[in-house]
């Protein structure tokens, strides 16, 4: 069994009770000791004062009396103190005189008077001590304890011992009442405070319970729901942090959902083309070789397009999940620009577009040549696609401090202003209806610019649409460069 409770509420209650119990018990114990000591001291002062008063009376009586013992007997009957037994012993410890206790009523004096056996016990205790010196002792009788003070007494050069025994029954009564009070009051107070602490803890933790109940029902299907905000600054802060987390999760869930929907949408057209083309071709028994070639070419184009889309999706999803490992090898960006423009030159000339590479600057950096090459190709590919026959695609490099800019511009129709802000989104195409039904391998799925931007970001760079109007569209890539270590 575990002694430490598992719920926060029980722990708080326990701590609260323990923290209250420790000072409470310490306070009770200290008060008890103080009361006990004070009463003891007062008793001693009382007995001492009484013995002094008795001695004074004895000396007064002595003048009038015939003998010392007679004076003693008179003094003992004259001087009576409540609950105090006075006795005088001679030098050998023999009892000479002893009074009965005084008091306001007869019962009281008899009730406080020690029984004969106790009297003997008390005298025996006194006799055991050195009678020539003052003594103070506490003796436990059968029913109560007695405080005894004894002092030497010299009368007419004879030595005696004067003793006073005081019953501690009243004091014990007071102390026992105090103990009883503490025994009832302390557990009672602790019980009340534990119940109060538990109720307070329940109240303070109620918002946490509400939050966890709400968090338990939030799932993918009701992602828009949020935790209740309330219950003190700390809990408000916690609820806000968790709600912020839920906001981000919801956004990324939505993104994923859109991504999957868009991706399946994109893949539908080429797969449908492949299936329909195959169905139609195979539906008739005999076809000429030219007809077969034609339909296989259509299927090949659709398959290329499929491959390209799947490759792009794969690259993006690896980049998103952090599985796309980017190499950081020393390279010269101008070499990639030269290589890129060279590789698209034949495709461009097929479309009647000229590629012009303007100024080239030395731009060393540590990066992934394949990925940067892909970025440049995506921009060049778009520029060529959108250029009119006979148009020119201009490529230029410029250094600005530690950053290098690569500009790719074409003479195409430009991007409508309402689309300019969205072209970097995944699957976004300016003329989506047209390009989706296109089956050529070059027609994209709206992922080219998204990939370009992602690659630039991986190199701490950017890709922006710098200019767009009919007859001129310009994209600019900016990446940090520096001497290769
Ligand atoms: P895709 O792979 O379909 O070309 P991109 O992400 O590369 O997709 O481009 C998104 C959209 O931006 C395309 O639909 C295209 O219409 C438009 N676009 C991109 N580059 C140019 C350009 N140079 N001129 C005109 N429109 C362009």
Give a topology summary:
Elements: H1 8-64, H2 68-78, E1 84-90, E2 95-98, H3 106-112, H4 116-128, E3 135-140, E4 145-155, E5 158-167, H5 169-217, H6 233-283, H7 289-321, E6 329-332, H8 333-350, E7 354-357, E8 364-367, H9 369-386, E9 392-400, E10 403-410, H10 417-420, H11 432-437, H12 448-458, E11 462-469, E12 472-480
Parallel strand pairs: 7-9
Antiparallel strand pairs: 1-2, 1-5, 3-4, 4-5, 6-8, 9-10, 10-12, 11-12
Bound molecules: adenosine-5'-diphosphate (ADP).
Verbal overview:
57% of the residues lie in helices and 17% in strands. Strand 11 and strand 12 form a beta hairpin. 25% of the residues are buried. It is built from twelve helices and twelve strands. The strands form three sheets. The chain has a five-stranded antiparallel sheet with strand order 2-1-5-4-3, with helices on both faces. A five-stranded mixed sheet has the order 7-9-10-12-11. With 485 residues, it is an alpha+beta fold. It folds into three domains: 168 residues, Beta-Lactamase (2-Layer Sandwich); 88 residues, Orthogonal Bundle (Helix Hairpins), CATH 1.10.287.130; 156 residues, 2-Layer Sandwich (Heat Shock Protein 90), CATH 3.30.565. The structure holds adenosine-5'-diphosphate (ADP).
